[in-house]
Amino acid sequence: MAMIKITKNMTMGELIGRFPYLAEPIMLKYGLHCVGCGLSTFETIEQGALSHGISKKELIEMIKHLNSWVKSKKYNF
């Protein structure tokens, strides 16, 4: 099975639906506290991050961190 690659264009709903364990250890660390918000379901990770003051550099860093976490845990779908 192929591993899902997390991108800035993935919606928050898709990310949390597939990888709910990522919200607390990673996303909250970067200041992305909107993971439980109803609107966040439809926003992309990039939209949510930028609207919460996360820089593009931090966004790229967070995406790398998310993918690294998924790969290290071998959660392939």
Description:
The chain has 77 residues and is mainly alpha-helical. The chain is 48% helix and 0% strand. It has helices at residues 12-18, 23-27, 45-51, 56-73. The chain starts with 11 loop residues before the first helix and ends with a helix.
Task: Work out the number of β strands.
Answer: 0
Strand share of the residues? Answer: under 5%
Overall pLDDT: 82
- How does the overall form come out from the CA principal axes? globular
Helical amount among residues, as a percent range? 40-55%
Series of secondary-structure elements, N-terminal to C-terminal = HHHH
- Largest sheet features: none
Radius of gyration: 11 Å
Distance between the termini: 6 Å
Low-confidence stretches: none
Instruction: Please count the helical segments.
Output: 4
Category from helices, strands and their pairing: mainly alpha
- What oligomeric state best describes the polypeptide chains here? single chain
Quick summary:
The protein is mainly alpha-helical and 77 residues long. It has helices spanning 12-18, 23-27, 45-51, 56-73.
